[in-house]
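// run 5 | inverse folding | seed 20
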């Protein structure tokens, strides 16, 4: 299991980490995004989208569960499963086509649907450490 820890001291640096991940992403990759409210998951995701060449606005799909962007070099499936009540809801929206397709998936709050995650994925955890500053974030990237 490869683990990489990146320290970010601003939203711009968090965005840049996302851009790098988007540039390096390959078809079929699944990323889970773990972090409390307000740690910068949306900023990170916007960076991933930019790294994929997506120019349209990217926002968290909290009420729609999945947002699909197809204008970049790969399709980008952005999930926010925070409000999901049951894994069956994921089946209703056809998650398998996204998880096992030619695009990349980024799943916020993925710990709520662990039982349906693919065997291999990359977990990205964003954490605050107020001792190191208000804008400081520790971003851990771990292949599972």
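// decoded
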């Amino acid at each position: 299991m490869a683990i990489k820890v990146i320290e970010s001291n601003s939203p711009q640096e968090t965005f840049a980490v996302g851009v790098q991940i988007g540039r390096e992403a390959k078809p079929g990759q699944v990323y889970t995004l773990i972090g409390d409210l307000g740690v910068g998951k949306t900023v990170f995701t916007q960076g991933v989208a930019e790294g994929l060449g997506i120019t349209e606005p990217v926002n968290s799909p909290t009420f729609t569960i999945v947002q699909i962007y197809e204008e970049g070099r790969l399709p980008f499936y952005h999930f926010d499963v925070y409000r999901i009540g049951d894994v069956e809801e994921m089946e209703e929206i056809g998650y398998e086509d996204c998880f096992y397709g030619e695009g990349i998936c980024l799943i916020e709050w993925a710990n709520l649907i662990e039982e349906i995650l693919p065997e291999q994925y990359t977990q990205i955890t964003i954490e605050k450490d107020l001792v190191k500053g208000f804008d400081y974030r520790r971003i851990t990237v771990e292949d599972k």
